[in-house]
Amino acid sequence: MTDSQSQRAGDPLLRIESLRKSYGAGHPVLQGVDFETYAGERIVVIGPSGGGKSTLLRVIMGLEDIDEGLITFKGRNYVSAAGGRTRIDAGIRRSIGMVFQHYTLFPHLNVMRNLVLAPCKVNHETRASATKRGLALLERFGLAEKAGAYPSQLSGGQKQRVAIVRALMMDPTLMLFDEVTSALDPELVAEVEQVILQLTGQDLPMVIVTHDIWFAKRIASRVLFCDGGRIVEDGPPEQVLSNPKTERARDFVTRVYHANG
Length: 261
Prior knowledge:
The protein has 261 residues and is of the alpha/beta class. The protein is built from 10 helices and 11 strands.
C-alpha cells in the first residue's frame, strides 16, 4: 500500500461530486469534476493555464457559484446547487483556509493587525489571546521581528509567509494554496515553499495549485492533473509526474520539466 492509499483510510474529509461551473454561456470552466480528499493528504493540482485549477480552489473556498454538483465536508453538505442558486454553509467555510497568489494583505494594517482581525471579528477571540497566538506563529516561521511592519515594508516572500500565517490563525481543518510562489522572484520561492513543507509535519490536509513540478514532487502525497475542466489523471506523484498514463499528461509534464530544467 502506498502512502497515498494509506492516508485514504476512513471517511473522506472533502467530497466533490459532478461539479460544473461556467462563466456565461459557452465558457465552461469545470466540466464534471469528481474527487475526494482524506485526512493528512497533500493534493497538488497541476495542469495548463485555463484548465480550471484556480477556479476549483475558489469553489472549494466558497468564493464562486456553481452550476451543478455537490461538495460535502466531513459528511455535511457544504456547497450545492439547486434551483439556479448556490448554497454555501458559512460555518464550514470558516474551517477552510486559503492563501492566494497575490497575498491579499490589508495594506493599511501592520502585520499583527492583519493576523488578529479575523480571529477577533469572526471568532470573537480576545485581542490579547489572538496576539499571543500570532506572535508564536510569526516566531515559528521566522517573522517575529516583522510584527509591527506594514505590507509595503515586506519582501514578496515575507508577504506570502504572513498570508500563510494569517490563514493559520483561524485554525483551519483544510488549507488551500493557489499558485503562492508564482508571483515571487526565484530567490524568494524557497522561503515560502519551506513554510508549506513545515506544515506537512503536522498532517494538515492541503490542496495546492502550482506550476512548479519540482515542488509538487517534493510535497505531494497525491497529484491531480487537470485539463479542460476535468481531472485527467489522479495518483501518487511518482506515477503522475514520472510515468503519466495519458498522452496529454505526458506531454504537459515533459514540457514543464524541460522548461524548468
